[in-house]
């Protein structure tokens, strides 16, 4: 039988506000364990939460970007469960009255645009982070645990999609587009590897044409876009095989094992959770001011969809435009173009050499020592004949290594092309004089020998001559 | 006269005239402590070194010409559920045995800024849950008027300390009457402010939407002074009130002529002990004679207020007390897993009343029960507020007995939680509504135990509430100390 996968994704985004959600501690990543903590985020007796206004505004901003309704009246609830890295043993979250409801996201996995509904966007606080000692580093065989509460209380936004996603490719496109929007808004660094952008997916299968939903499996622990796509593909295959064999699907949480390339059932015992939500009495309900919402709306930056469309009007291929925006390269692209770099050349460099460098090193575009001005300079040098394409790649590597500006590097490494006609003329003349036979054959129509003579000039100049100029000078002199 | 028997106002005047020093005052109070504590057990912790340093510093500040306000140099006690940096804070619970907070509650900060000398931490029912101070893991506080009786609770230690002069004033917390009821049973003044007027930052929460820190003083004027020292907006408490409110002191001498005073029908009849009813009626008659327009009003929803309270307060406490799990602070009982450790720690650390309320609250919030219990209780809470609103359209203040009975015997209600819960029938409605209320002693019953008279006012109505309370105090002329407060009594 053919089955239709039904997929919904819950995404958690750590906001990069200066301070935490309910206290004044720094919200940045890293730091020695338990240094960015205070009575509030440690859950000490007597401490009280005070909400971070910026985190609320940023959540509203994402809600607007996703076409959500921004609710006038929104409430924080306590979500009660005992867990060692949850210092109060309840999480301040939102329940039936979230900040944003009912939006959508257009995603295009390459097979045409699709609209994925957004159920809600709400705000909560992150937990601390446990490290299990001894054993295999997992909780069940650990000898002990250490808890770092630096992460405790960092504002965490949860974006819940409708179960509108049908393929792993769509899921990936959804996650990428959501991430691109978050980056465009500048509200999170959205780094998957550091956990500031993380997702869980709910997957069920139903016979094609059926309306009723099948049994839902929650898949966790996917730490990259690729693993999201792989995990869902695996899970769809696994469930298909079970259904084909007439086996039931267990409603469970499964963890993606990147190395094994498969999902595994969670080790913790499955029990139905009763979080005993009730309105957080330490906080007053949020009344959203329509004027503030309007101000946020009018201050929104250019969103990825519009940005891609603008790049296409600059002559960039749609796929390259998508790569630039999805790969956090758009700011660098804009800076390069603003510095006078040719847009198409900039797109080629960024989606080619620069993207490869980022992949190789795992660095983020914002962290590398290449800026718009230096990429524009590099592009200008190639266009102006000062650098060959091969030499330009070497110069770029130098720039990425922090050795200086493209011109400095090209000069130091002696990579500049000789494109001065008066300097090249004597070299051309002496090569022509040394090859009278070839010159004669060219004049009789053997034009391909021009290339041979260009090569001789290049050899004589140690490869630094601008081959296009040499070519023109030879043709002029032999009278072609 | 023993210096420990001065009011804050008198002591303040003499400190400023140079007639005595903060060190003298502290010495007098410490003598009173050593005289009474063996019987009373009002204090859990005496911070002798800290108090001495604060008194010396207070005197030095005076000699430099600094005046930090009316509590400058005055020895004060704090209920042991307000965190004090560097001083053990236990909430009378084993689960916080040895816990030294790393920060001061906002109230404590303000008292220190105001030059107060914090002498120590007073006993309470564990986590402020109780009406007798018997639910303390560290022993029962006794009533200064009769040590066989309870001092009330949960702020029993604070009320008893003020009653015998072991502190010039004290702070308690009031979630369902925990300041007013012990003040009533110990013959002192106790006040619960409008919710949000005093910061809860650093108050170890029992039920966040009901808890409010408030003062206990020997006189109404002292109580106003204590209240003013800690009231006002605090950015660290999101429920803290931001606006302005009438000066609670200006009207203290105005009397009650022309004021409309309502007697709450539902809280003045059945179940009120005869001695209490008599003292209450006598006070009402005096107010009437002093020119107040006294009439009876009805708060029909008070019939359900107690039940609603005993769902809302435990529900909130079940979450508030979840953090005591042995992971980060407090004693830990080992277990095979994190869950087992948490369970064992909590089972060992919480006393029976706290356990009962956590279980009640957990149940009331559970899936399938929420609407019937917690949801329904919130509706009653709204009704109580509406009843008060209607009443205040007709009268300026409401009056009731503070407690249906005077101090009961130690152990008398220990095994009967429902009887104990009834102690708070007159005080709970103002916690549900968030309005202010104050208890003023008006006389003794046939057993020689003090009777408290409660004045309730609408939110931010502290000025009119204190105005009536001051007149009640003048009219009743209650100015006696328990025998224990004199050296003859202690022998």
Describe this structure in words.
The complex is a heterodimer of chains A (480) and B (491). Chain A has helices spanning 53-65, 168-185, 225-244, 290-298, 304-313, 318-326, 330-338, 343-361, 372-383, 389-400, 406-412, 421-434, 436-443, 449-460, 467-478; strands at residues 3-14, 69-70, 73-74, 76-80, 90-94, 100-107, 114-125, 129-133, 144-148, 155-161, 197-207, 217-222, 253-257, 262-265, 278-279, 286-287. By secondary structure, chain A is of the alpha+beta class. The radius of gyration of chain A is 29 Å and the shape is elongated. The mean pLDDT of chain A is 91. With 491 residues, chain B is an alpha/beta fold. Helix content of chain B is 40%, strand content 12%. Chain B is built from 16 helices and eleven strands. Chain B has helices at residues 8-17, 22-40, 48-63, 106-113, 156-164, 180-186, 220-230, 274-289, 302-320, 338-349, 352-365, 371-394, 417-421, 428-433, 462-476, 487-490, and strands spanning 43-46, 75-79, 117-122, 169-173, 189-192, 213-217, 260-264, 293-297, 397-401, 437-444, 450-456. In chain B, strands 1-3-2-4-6-5-10-11-9-7-8 form an eleven-stranded mixed beta sheet, sandwiched between helices. The radius of gyration of chain B is 21 Å and the shape is globular. The model of chain B has no long low-confidence stretch (mean pLDDT 96). Chain A binds chain B through residues 39, 42-51, 78, 80, 82, 84, 87-90, 145, 147, 274, 276-278, 281-284, and chain B through 82-83, 89, 91, 96, 99, 101-103, 105, 200-205, 207-209, 235-239, 315-316, 318-319, 322-325, 327-329, 338-339, 342, 362, 365-367, 370, 374.
């Amino acid at each position: 039988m053919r089955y239709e996968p039904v997929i919904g994704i819950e995404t958690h985004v750590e906001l990069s506000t200066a301070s935490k959600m309910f206290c004044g501690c720094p919200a940045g990543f890293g730091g020695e364990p338990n240094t960015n903590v205070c009575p509030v985020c440690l859950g000490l007796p007597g401490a009280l939460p005070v909400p971070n206004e910026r985190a609320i505004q940023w959540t509203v901003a994402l809600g607007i970007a996703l076409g959500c309704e921004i609710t006038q009246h929104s409430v924080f609830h306590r979500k009660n469960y005992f867990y060692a890295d949850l210092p109060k043993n309840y999480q301040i979250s939102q329940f039936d009255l979230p900040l944003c409801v009912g939006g959508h996201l257009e995603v295009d996995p390459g097979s045409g645009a699709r609209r994925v509904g957004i159920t809600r966007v709400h705000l909560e606080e992150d937990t601390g982070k446990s490290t299990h000692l001894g054993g295999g580093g997992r909780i069940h065989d650990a000898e002990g645990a250490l808890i770092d509460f630096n992460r405790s209380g960092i504002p965490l936004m949860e974006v819940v999609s409708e179960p509108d996603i049908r393929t792993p490719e769509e899921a990936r496109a959804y996650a990428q587009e959501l991430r691109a929007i978050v980056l465009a808004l500048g509200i999170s660094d959205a780094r998957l590897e550091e956990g500031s952008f993380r997702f869980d997916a709910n997957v069920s299968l139903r016979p094609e044409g059926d309306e009723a939903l099948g049994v839902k499996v929650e898949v966790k622990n996917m730490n990259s876009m690729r693993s999201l796509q792989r995990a869902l593909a695996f899970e769809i295959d696994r469930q298909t095989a079970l259904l084909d064999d007439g086996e039931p699907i267990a409603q469970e949480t499964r963890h993606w094992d990147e190395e094994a390339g498969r999902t595994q059932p969670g080790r913790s015992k499955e029990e139905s959770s009763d979080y005993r939500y009730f309105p957080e009495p330490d906080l007053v309900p949020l009344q959203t001011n329509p004027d503030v919402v309007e101000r946020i709306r009018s201050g929104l930056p250019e969103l990825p969809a519009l940005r891609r469309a603008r790049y296409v009007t600059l002559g960039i291929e749609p796929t390259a435009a998508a790569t630039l925006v999805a790969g956090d390269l758009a700011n660098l692209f804009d800076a390069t173009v603003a510095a006078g770099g040719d847009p198409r050349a900039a797109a080629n460099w960024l989606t080619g050499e620069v993207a490869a460098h980022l992949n190789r090193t795992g660095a983020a575009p914002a962290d590398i020592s290449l800026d718009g001005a230096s990429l524009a300079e590099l592009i200008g040098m190639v266009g102006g004949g000062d650098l060959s394409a091969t030499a330009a790649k070497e110069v770029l590597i130098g720039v990425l290594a922090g050795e200086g500006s493209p011109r400095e590097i090209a000069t130091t490494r002696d990579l500049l092309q000789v494109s001065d006609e008066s300097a090249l003329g004597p070299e051309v003349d002496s090569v022509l004089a040394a090859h009278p036979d070839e010159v004669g054959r060219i004049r009789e129509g053997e034009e391909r020998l021009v290339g041979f003579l260009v090569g001789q000039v290049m050899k004589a100049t140690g490869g630094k001559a601008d081959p296009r100029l040499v070519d023109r000078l030879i043709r002029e002199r032999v009278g072609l | 006269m023993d210096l420990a028997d001065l009011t804050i106002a008198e002591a303040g005047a003499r400190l400023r005239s140079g007639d005595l020093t903060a060190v003298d005052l502290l010495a007098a109070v410490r003598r009173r402590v050593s005289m009474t504590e063996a019987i009373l057990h009002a204090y859990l912790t005496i911070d002798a070194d800290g108090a001495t340093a604060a008194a010396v510093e207070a005197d030095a500040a005076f000699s430099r010409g600094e005046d930090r306000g009316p509590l400058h140099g005055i020895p004060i006690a704090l209920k042991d559920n307000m965190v004090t940096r560097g001083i053990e804070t236990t909430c009378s619970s084993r689960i916080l045995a040895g816990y030294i907070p790393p920060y001061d509650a906002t109230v404590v900060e303000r008292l220190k800024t105001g030059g107060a000398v914090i002498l120590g931490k007073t006993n309470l029912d564990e986590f402020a849950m109780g009406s007798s101070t018997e639910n303390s893991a560290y022993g029962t506080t006794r009533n200064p008027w009769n040590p066989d009786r309870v001092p009330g609770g949960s702020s029993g230690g604070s009320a008893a300390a003020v009653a015998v002069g072991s502190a010039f004033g004290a702070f308690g917390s009031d979630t369902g009457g925990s300041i007013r009821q012990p003040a009533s049973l110990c013959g002192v003044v106790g006040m619960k402010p409008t919710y949000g007027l005093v910061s809860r930052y650093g108050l170890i929460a029992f039920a966040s939407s009901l808890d409010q820190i408030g003062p206990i003083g020997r006189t109404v004027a002292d109580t106003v002074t204590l209240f003013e020292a800690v009231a006002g907006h605090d950015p660290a408490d999101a429920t803290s009130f931001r606006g302005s409110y009438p000066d609670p002191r200006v009207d203290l001498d105005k009397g009650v002529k022309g004021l409309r005073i309502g007697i709450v029908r539902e809280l003045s009849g059945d179940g009120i002990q005869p001695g209490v009813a008599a003292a209450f009626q006598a006070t009402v008659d005096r107010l009437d004679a002093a020119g107040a327009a006294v009439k009876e009003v009805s708060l029909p929803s008070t019939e359900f207020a107690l039940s609603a309270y005993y769902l809302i307060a435990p529900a909130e406490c079940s979450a508030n007390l979840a953090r005591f799990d042995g992971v980060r602070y407090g004693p830990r009982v080992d277990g095979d897993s994190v869950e087992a450790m948490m369970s064992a720690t909590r089972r060992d650390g919480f006393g029976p009343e706290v356990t009962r309320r956590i279980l009640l609250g957990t149940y009331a919030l559970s899936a399938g029960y929420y609407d019937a219990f917690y949801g329904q209780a919130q509706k009653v809470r709204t009704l109580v507020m509406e009843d008060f609103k209607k009443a205040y359209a007709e009268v300026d203040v409401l009056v009731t007995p503070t407690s249906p009975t005077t101090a009961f015997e130690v152990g008398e209600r220990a095994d009967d939680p429902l009887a104990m819960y009834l102690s708070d029938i007159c005080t709970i409605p103002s916690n549900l509504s968030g309005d202010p209320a104050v208890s003023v002693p008006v006389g003794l019953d046939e057993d020689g135990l003090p009777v408290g008279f409660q004045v309730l006012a609408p939110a931010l109505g502290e000025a009119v509430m204190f105005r009536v309370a001051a007149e009640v105090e003048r009219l009743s002329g209650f100015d006696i100390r328990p025998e224990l407060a004199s050296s003859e009594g202690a022998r």
